[in-house]
Design a protein that fits this description.
The structure holds 2 protein chains of 2 kinds. Helix content of chain A is 25%, strand content 17%. Chain A has 7 helices and 9 strands. In chain A, strand 6 (145-149), helix 5 and strand 7 (176-180) form a beta-alpha-beta unit. In chain B, helix 5 crosses helix 6 and helix 7 packs parallel to helix 10. The two termini of chain B are 17 Å apart. By secondary structure, chain B is mostly helical. Classes of the chains: A alpha/beta, B mainly alpha. Chain A binds chain B through residues 50, 53-57, 68, 70-72, 74, 76-78, 80-83, 91-92, 94-97, 134, 137-138, 140, and chain B through 3-4, 6-7, 10-11, 14-15, 68-72, 74-83, 220-223.
C-alpha cells in the first residue's frame, strides 16, 4: 500500500554559503495525486523536483516515505549518447529489471507517436522527439512517483493530448504525478493540486475539481486561467477563483512577497499577432505575470 | 546494478573516450618494453609499470565517468532504484575497464617484453601491484571526473597534478603513509618487495577507500 510522502521542514541550498533555494518547506503528498508545480524561472521548481526524486538530500529537514518506483523525465532529454532509441530503451528497461521490455517500450512509443523513432540514433532526434523518449523511459515501469520537468515543451499536438491521459491513468492506479509546468497545460486537470514555488517557499493551492478532463489546447479562445490578486496569507493559485470577471484585477501581476502585496498595480494591454499569442503568453506566465486573452 | 554497469560500459565503448587511455597504455608499454627486461628483472619492470600506469588508469576512469551526460545520471538513478546504485555502478564500470587494461599490462610483456618468463611468485606480485595501481588510479580518476570537477581543463590539471603529487609525496619519508608508489618501485628493484608488500597494499587500499568515500559523498551532494 502506498503511503503519504512527507517533506518536513525541508530546506535546500547548493553550497554551505550559498543562498537558500527552499526554506522550511512542509508538504504532504497523497498517493494518486497530480500536482502541477509552477513558479518563475529560478524559483526552485527543478530543485524541489530533485529533492522529491531523491537526487539530492535536503540541507535541512527530511523527506519520508518516498515511493519506491520513480519515473523521471527531464526538461531536456540528453541525446548526446551513442545509442539508437530502441537500444537505449532496452538498456533502461533492463536496468529497471523489466522482462517484457520490448513490448512495453513499443506500446509506449505507439501511444506517444514515437514508434517511427525507435531505429534512429538519439543524436539525430529533434527536441520534441527527444522529449518523447524522455517520457517513454520514465514510464517503462509503472511509477509510484512520476516526476515530469516541463514535459509539454516541444511536444506535438497528439502527444500533448495523450500525456494528460497517461497521467490520469497513473494517478488512478495510485501513483503520484508531479509536473513542473511553465505552460500550465494541466491547469484544467481534474483534481490536480497546484503548488507555487516562490521566495523559497511552496504555496499549496486548492484542488481543481470543476474543470474539463483534458488539458486545454494552446490555441484555446477562452480567457485563460486568471486568478485574481489574493491576500498574502492565502494561496496565490486558487483555481476556484480563476474566472473572475474583474479584468482590472485579473491582469495585475501577482504579489512577489507579502510586503509587496499592497504595492500599486497597473494593467498593460499587449497586442500581438495571433500566431505569437501562445508564445508571448507563456513567456509572461513564466515570469510570474497573470494574463488574459480578449479574443 | 549489473545492467547499469553494462549500460555505462557500452556507452563508454561506443564513444571515442576509450581510445585515449588505450593509446596511452600501449604507448607506455611500448616504452617500458622496447628493450627486453633481462632475466631476473621482471618484478622491477612490473613494479615500474604498475606505478606509472596509475596515470592511465585514472584517465580511463575519469573518461568513463564523464561519458554519461549529467541528466542521464539522474535518469539512471531513478531507473536503478536509488542514487547509490548509480554511483556504485559507475565505479564498478571504471574498475572493470581498468582491470582489463591491467590485464594487458601484465600479459603483454609475457608475450614480448621479458627475456625470460617470470617466476610464479614474481608474476603474482606483478598482478598484485597492478591491482594496487588500478585501485589508486580509479580513485584518482573518480575524484577528477566531471561530476566533481565540472571544468574539463581543471579536471585534467587536477588529474595530472594529483598523480605528480602522489609521486612526489611517495618520495618523502612520509611516502609509506601515502600511496607508496616510489617505495614499491624501490623495494622491487632491491628485491625486497615481499617485505613491504603488505604495508604498501594496506596504505594504498586505505587511501583508495578514503578517496572513494569522499567521491561518494560529493556525488550525493552533486549528482
Amino acid at each position: 500500500m502506498l503511503r503519504f510522502m512527507r517533506l518536513s521542514t525541508v530546506s535546500f541550498r547548493y553550497s554551505r554559503r550559498g543562498p537558500w533555494i527552499l526554506r522550511d518547506v512542509e508538504l504532504t503528498v497523497r498517493p494518486g495525486s497530480v500536482i502541477e508545480v509552477t513558479g518563475r524561472n529560478g524559483a526552485g521548481k527543478s530543485t524541489l523536483l530533485r529533492l522529491m526524486a531523491g537526487f539530492v538530500p535536503p540541507s535541512q529537514g527530511s523527506i519520508a516515505d518516498r515511493p519506491k518506483v520513480i519515473g523521471y523525465a527531464p526538461d531536456v532529454f540528453p541525446v548526446e549518447q551513442p545509442f539508437t532509441v530502441a537500444a537505449y530503451l532496452a538498456h533502461m528497461s533492463r536496468i529497471r529489471g523489466l522482462s517484457s521490455s520490448a513490448s512495453t517500450a513499443g506500446d509506449l512509443a505507439e501511444r506517444l507517436n514515437a514508434a517511427h523513432l525507435l531505429d534512429q540514433p538519439l543524436g539525430d532526434l529533434s527536441k520534441g522527439s527527444a522529449q518523447k523518449i524522455g517520457l517513454i523511459q520514465s514510464l517503462l515501469a509503472p511509477p509510484d512517483l512520476l516526476i515530469l520537468d516541463e514535459p509539454f515543451a516541444g511536444l506535438d499536438e497528439q502527444t500533448r493530448t495523450e500525456l494528460p491521459v497517461i497521467i490520469e491513468e497513473i494517478a488512478a492506479r495510485g501513483g503520484t504525478v508531479v509536473v513542473s509546468d511553465h505552460q500550465n497545460q494541466l491547469r484544467h486537470f481534474p483534481g490536480a493540486d497546484h503548488w507555487l514555488v516562490a521566495n523559497g517557499d511552496v504555496t499549496v493551492g486548492a484542488r481543481d475539481s470543476a474543470a474539463p478532463p483534458t488539458a486545454a489546447p494552446q490555441d484555446s479562445p477562452v480567457p485563460r486561467d486568471i486568478p485574481p490578486p489574493q491576500d498574502a496569507s492565502t494561496s496565490r493559485d486558487t483555481p476556484g477563483a480563476r474566472h473572475s470577471p474583474d479584468v482590472s484585477k485579473e491582469l495585475s501581476p501577482p504579489p512577489r512577497s507579502p510586503s509587496e502585496s499592497s504595492s500599486p498595480q497597473v494593467v498593460i494591454e499587449v497586442i500581438v499577432d495571433a500566431g505569437d499569442a501562445d508564445e508571448v503568453e507563456q513567456k509572461l506566465r513564466a515570469d510570474g505575470y497573470l494574463t488574459r486573452r480578449s479574443s | 546494478m549489473i545492467h547499469l554497469v553494462r549500460f555505462k560500459l557500452s556507452a563508454y565503448a561506443r564513444s571515442h573516450r576509450l581510445f585515449q587511455p588505450t593509446i596511452g597504455l600501449f604507448a607506455m608499454l611500448f616504452v617500458f618494453y622496447s628493450t627486453l627486461a633481462p632475466p631476473g628483472k621482471e618484478l622491477p619492470a612490473y613494479a615500474d609499470s604498475a606505478g606509472l600506469l596509475i596515470l592511465v588508469f585514472a584517465w580511463a576512469a575519469r573518461g568513463l565517468l564523464d561519458t554519461e551526460p549529467p541528466t542521464q545520471r539522474l535518469i539512471s538513478m531513478t531507473a536503478a532504484g536509488r542514487p547509490g546504485r548509480e554511483i556504485g555502478a559507475g565505479l564498478l564500470a571504471a574498475l572493470t575497464v581498468n582491470l582489463g587494461m591491467a590485464a594487458i599490462a601484465v600479459g603483454l610483456p609475457l608475450l614480448h617484453g621479458f627475456a625470460a618468463m617470470p617466476t610464479p611468485a614474481d608474476l603474482a606480485s606483478g598482478v598484485a601491484l597492478h591491482g594496487l595501481g588500478v585501485s589508486a588510479g580509479t580513485a584518482l580518476g573518480a575524484l577528477t571526473s566531471r561530476p566533481i570537477l565540472a571544468s574539463p581543463a581543471v579536471s585534467m590539471l587536477a588529474l595530472l597534478g594529483g598523480y605528480l603529487a602522489l609521486l612526489l609525496i611517495s618520495l618523502t619519508p612520509a611516502g609509506h603513509l601515502a600511496v607508496p608508489i616510489m617505495p614499491w618501485m624501490r623495494a622491487a628493484n632491491a628485491g625486497l618487495l615481499g617485505e613491504v608488500l603488505l604495508p604498501v597494499s594496506a596504505a594504498t587500499l586505505f587511501w583508495t577507500a578514503a578517496s572513494l568515500l569522499l567521491y561518494t559523498r560529493l556525488r550525493r551532494l552533486n549528482p
